[in-house]
Amino acid sequence: MTHPFTGAGVALITPFNEDKSIDYSALERLIENQISGGIDYLVVLGTTGETPALSDDEKKEIVRFVIEKNAGRLKIVVGIGSNNTLALVQSIQKTNFDGIDAILSVTPYYNKPTQEGLFQHFKAVVEASPAPVILYNVPGRTGVNMDADTTLRIARLSEKVIGIKEACGDLGQFAKIIKDSPEYFKVISGDDALTLPSIAMGSIGVISVIANALPAKLSQLTHASLEGNIKKASQIQLQMAEMLKLIFKEGNPGGVKALMEMMGTAKNQVRLPLVPVSSATYSLIEKELKQIG
Predict the structure, then answer these.
(1) Is the pLDDT at 87 greater than 90, yes or no?
(2) Which residue segments constitute the domains of the chain, with CATH numbers given?
């Protein structure tokens, strides 16, 4: 049986106007670009969406808008995470899950919980959620790495825990999880640069940042990797390698928003405390875009 989130997912940006209000016209255009570009599912309210800088009302409206404009064409994953477990459980209980196929829940940040604390946190999340749960490990942002044994322990709680977006950057940790996980639980790369190597090891795809700007390229890379066409996948991965370095050079999503402005798909606007990339990085991204066509 094919896992429901096999393939290429995109962690959608939140497009802003010059006055920092949400640019819903650009968001609709972004959704259509992902669908026509061959992306398999949409991830809303992830890190790339600048979720910490959105109000609760804005979050609800973005989810409603994406569900409406998607019109059932692609599966939708919604990011619901917090470093306050009780508040997170309450938030899940209040969520309208119509049109939502799974939630993506990040490890608690700033608190720096122990591995036992991470297990107990996600146990509460799994018990509260009526939808399938994808764990999200991104130690570079949260300050804590959820190790492979803890991930596997959570995975075995319930078949409702269907996978992890793994962004630890450690292929050894990928390997441990892939090797010992239950059949229903799969690893999804949280790092564009590891799309091909992670799939070669047994992951089922990627939740991508660069797909916001280059959905067809990312989709081709992911699907070629999954089909075992290593030659084609390698060519695309190598072609995109420098651009991937550049869009993360000054943080995410500043780099990809700069790229999208160059392509005419969204404005180069972020909300504080984020700022746009420097003019030097902007020029490097622009130069690389010309290189890859």
Answers:
(1) yes
(2) 7-229 (3.20.20.70)
Among 162, 159, 206, CA closest to 43: 206
pLDDT in tens, 206-259: 999 999 999 999 999 999 999 999 999 999 999 999 999 999 999 999 999 999
C-alpha span between 119 and 151 (Å, rounded): 8
Locate all alpha helices (DSSP H) within the chain, ordered by sequence: 24-36, 56-70, 85-94, 115-128, 139-142, 148-155, 171-180, 195-201, 215-226, 230-247, 254-263, 279-292
**Residues catalogued as catalytic:** 136, 165
Instruction: Give the pTM.
Output: 0.97
Query: How far are the Cα atoms of 20, 73, 260 from residue 156, in angstroms, in the given order?
Result: 43, 31, 40
Tell me the CA distances in angstroms from 78 to 23, 62, 107, 163, 196, one per residue in order. Answer: 19, 10, 15, 14, 25
> Could you tell me the two tokens for 37?
């570009």
